[in-house]
């Protein structure tokens, strides 16, 4: 049996230009799981306002964080893929992005495998992140199966064949031990040099429009916090949510608000980590390291330190390989997803 493993992240612009940023935003914000508005209402806003204004506002930030090899997220995802491939020598490992190339469909095309495990690079499940990945993988193979079945006689089936491999999905891994221990060690090492008053875990925000889904996501974020905090009974560790986009209510409290409030609460030395991000990107390199630091210091804070995402640390290679080994024989139904 030929086994495959696909790791998937959101992606990033192909290059730091306004056109590339516009294409990336169009791909990302056209997904109904991300923006839950009817296209008749949303497309005029997207095409008439956002895609005309946002690329110009973002270009300086993308150019500032760009590396000689591409965007940090793209480079790190490739490193994560290579790391997992080394750990799973008997498995063909590939990577894909939801909103840039290689797309999920490009990664799956002409892939000669019998069994596929898909690992979204989002530790905490959210409808806006994991559901599109599951849907696109299933839709891709169902379309192939439909085309193949039309060419077969009688009631021949192709599910489970090389046209439609057996599929397994990792829905979440909010408390995966290797990842949790890595964060605990980062906090432990930094606290040995700086007596922090508080640790703030900043998770990517999600709209609060679908209460059950948002509550489920927040519960997983709290589980991540509780698992990390178990090693530090005397150190205050709280959570917040960042990267709010557009109107409407989002999960709170917001990171932008909390970093301005904490100095008045006596927090002068703050350590921030971003456990929902497994690779550096615009949100970690610019929003957290620059914007939130500025907010905190302007509000009276003294020290603002940041723990990098787990990126291509060997601990994340162990996380991914452990996830593959534990679930590749178990295929959860999509009904289990929020």
TrEMBL record:
In what pathway does it function?
Answer: Porphyrin-containing compound metabolism; protoheme biosynthesis
E.C. number(s) listed in UniProt: 4.99.1.9
Q: Where in the cell is it found?
A: Cytoplasm
- Listed binding positions for Fe(2+) are 204, 283
What's an example GO BP annotation here?
heme biosynthetic process
Q: Which reaction does it catalyse?
A: Fe-coproporphyrin III + 2 H(+) = coproporphyrin III + Fe(2+)
Any one cellular-component term (Gene Ontology): cytoplasm
Q: Where does Fe-coproporphyrin III bind?
A: 61-62
Tell me which InterPro entries the record gives: Ferrochelatase (IPR001015), Ferrochelatase_C (IPR033644), Ferrochelatase_N (IPR033659)
Q: Which GO terms describe its molecular function?
A: ferrochelatase activity; metal ion binding
Q: What class of enzyme is it?
A: lyase
Q: Which UniProt keywords apply?
A: Cytoplasm, Heme biosynthesis, Iron, Lyase, Metal-binding, Porphyrin biosynthesis
What CDD domains is this protein classified in? Ferrochelatase_C (cd00419), Ferrochelatase_N (cd03411)
Pfam families from the xrefs? Ferrochelatase (PF00762)
Q: What does this protein do?
A: Involved in coproporphyrin-dependent heme b biosynthesis. Catalyzes the insertion of ferrous iron into coproporphyrin III to form Fe-coproporphyrin III.
What family is this protein classified in?
A: Belongs to the ferrochelatase family.
HAMAP family per the record?
Ferrochelatase
> What is the protein name for this chain?
Coproporphyrin III ferrochelatase
Q: What organism is this sequence from?
A: Lawsonella clevelandensis
């Amino acid at each position: 049996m030929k086994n495959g493993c696909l790791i998937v992240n959101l992606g990033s612009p192909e290059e730091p230009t306004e056109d590339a940023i516009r294409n990336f935003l169009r791909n990302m914000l056209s997904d109904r799981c991300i923006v839950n508005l009817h296209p008749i209402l949303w497309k005029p806003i997207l095409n008439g306002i956002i895609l005309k204004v946002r690329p110009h506002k973002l270009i300086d930030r993308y150019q500032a964080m760009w590396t000689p090899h591409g965007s940090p997220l793209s480079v790190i995802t490739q490193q994560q893929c290579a790391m997992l491939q080394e750990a799973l020598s008997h498995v063909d490992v590939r990577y894909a992005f939801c909103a840039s190339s290689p797309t999920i469909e490009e990664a799956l095309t002409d892939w000669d495998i019998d069994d596929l495990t898909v690992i979204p690079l989002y530790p905490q499940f959210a409808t806006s992140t994991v559901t599109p990945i599951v849907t696109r993988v299933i839709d891709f193979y169902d379309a192939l199966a439909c085309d193949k079945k039309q060419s077969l006689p009688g009631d021949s089936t192709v599910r489970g064949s090389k046209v439609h491999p057996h599929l397994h999905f990792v829905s979440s891994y909010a408390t995966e031990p290797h990842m949790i221990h890595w964060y605990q060690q980062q906090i432990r090492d930094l606290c040995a040099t700086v007596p922090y008053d508080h640790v703030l875990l900043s998770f990517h925000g999600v709209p609060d429009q679908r209460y059950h889904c948002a509550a489920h996501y927040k519960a997983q974020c709290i589980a991540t916090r509780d698992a990390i905090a178990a090693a530090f009974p005397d150190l205050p560790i709280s959570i917040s949510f960042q990267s709010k986009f557009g109107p409407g209510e989002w999960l709170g409290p917001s990171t932008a608000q909390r970093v301005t409030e904490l100095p008045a609460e006596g927090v002068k030395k703050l350590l921030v980590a971003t456990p929902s991000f497994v690779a550096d990107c615009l949100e970690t390199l610019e929003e957290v390291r620059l914007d939130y630091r500025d907010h905190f210091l302007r509000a009276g804070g003294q020290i603002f330190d940041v723990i990098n995402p787990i990126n291509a640390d060997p601990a994340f290679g162990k996380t991914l390989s452990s996830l593959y080994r534990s679930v590749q024989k178990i295929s959860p139904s999509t009904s289990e997803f929020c």
